[in-house]
C-alpha cells in the first residue's frame, strides 16, 4: 500500500488532512476492500482518495465548490473512483447505509449528523473525526456517549516538519476521535 504524501494532492486554499494525521485517521477507520466510507467535509479529498486506494467504496460530501473540484481532480490524478457530493451534511447526504464514516468538517451540524448516522451507519460501523478545537472535540465526545458508541478513543497528535532552513515547523495539534456504533 502506498501512503500518499501531502505534495501528491492538488490543494489550493482548501483544507487538507496532512499525511501524519491522515495515516492515523485512516488506520482508525480499519478499512477493508469493498467497505463503504462516507467522508463528511472532505476538503481536497485526501482521506477519500487514500481510502479509495485501500479499496473502500467512497462517498464524499463537501460544501465548497472549490473543494468538490479539487476532490474530483485528486481522485482522477490518483486513478480512483469515488462519489463526490456538493452539499451540506446531513441534508444532502444519500439515503444509504455506510460501514465507516469520517468527519473532517461538520459546518456546525454535528448533532444533526449523529441523528443521520443513527439510521445510516451500520451496527458495528466505525466513526472517526478530526478536530482542532476543544469545543468540537468535547461535543463529539458527548455525542459518542449519548448515542451509545463503544470503544471510544481520543488521541491528541502534534506533528512538526522540517522546513527549508532546517527548523521544525509545528502543525496544529489535532484530536482524533473514534467510536464503534453499538
TrEMBL record:
The answer on whether this UniProt entry bears the keyword Calcium reads: no
Q: Which domain of life is it from?
A: Bacteria
Q: What is its EC number?
A: 2.1.1.-
Keyword tags = Cobalamin biosynthesis, Methyltransferase, S-adenosyl-L-methionine, Transferase
| UniProt-recorded Gene Ontology molecular function terms | protein methyltransferase activity
Task: Name the top EC class.
Answer: transferase
- Pathway of this protein? Cofactor biosynthesis; adenosylcobalamin biosynthesis
| Pfam families, A to Z | Methyltransf_31 (PF13847)
Transport as UniProt keyword: no
Its BP terms in the Gene Ontology are: cobalamin biosynthetic process; methylation
Domain named Methyltransferase: residues: 32-139
Q: NCBIfam families this protein is in?
A: CbiT
Could you tell me what this protein is called?
A: Probable cobalt-precorrin-6Y C(15)-methyltransferase [decarboxylating]
Q: Which organism is it from?
A: Urinicoccus massiliensis
The gene coding this protein = cbiT
Amino acid at each position: 500500500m502506498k501512503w500518499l504524501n501531502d505534495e501528491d494532492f492538488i490543494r489550493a486554499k482548501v483544507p487538507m488532512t496532512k499525511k501524519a494525521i491522515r495515516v492515523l485517521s485512516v488506520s482508525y477507520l480499519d478499512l477493508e476492500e469493498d467497505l463503504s466510507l462516507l467522508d463528511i467535509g472532505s476538503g481536497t479529498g485526501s482521506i477519500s482518495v487514500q481510502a479509495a486506494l485501500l479499496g473502500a467504496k467512497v462517498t464524499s460530501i463537501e460544501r465548497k465548490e472549490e473543494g468538490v473540484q479539487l476532490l474530483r481532480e485528486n481522485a482522477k490524478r490518483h486513478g480512483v473512483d469515488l462519489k463526490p457530493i456538493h452539499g451540506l451534511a446531513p441534508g444532502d447526504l444519500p439515503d444509504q447505509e455506510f460501514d465507516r464514516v469520517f468527519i473532517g468538517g461538520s459546518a456546525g451540524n454535528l448533532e444533526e449528523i449523529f441523528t443521520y448516522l443513527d439510521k445510516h451507519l451500520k451496527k458495528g460501523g466505525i466513526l472517526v473525526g478530526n478536530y482542532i478545537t476543544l469545543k468540537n472535540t468535547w461535543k463529539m465526545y458527548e455525542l459518542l456517549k449519548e448515542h451509545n458508541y463503544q470503544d471510544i478513543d481520543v488521541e491528541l497528535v502534534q506533528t512538526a516538519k522540517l522546513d527549508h532552513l532546517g527548523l521544525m515547523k509545528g502543525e496544529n495539534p489535532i484530536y482524533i476521535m473514534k467510536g464503534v456504533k453499538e
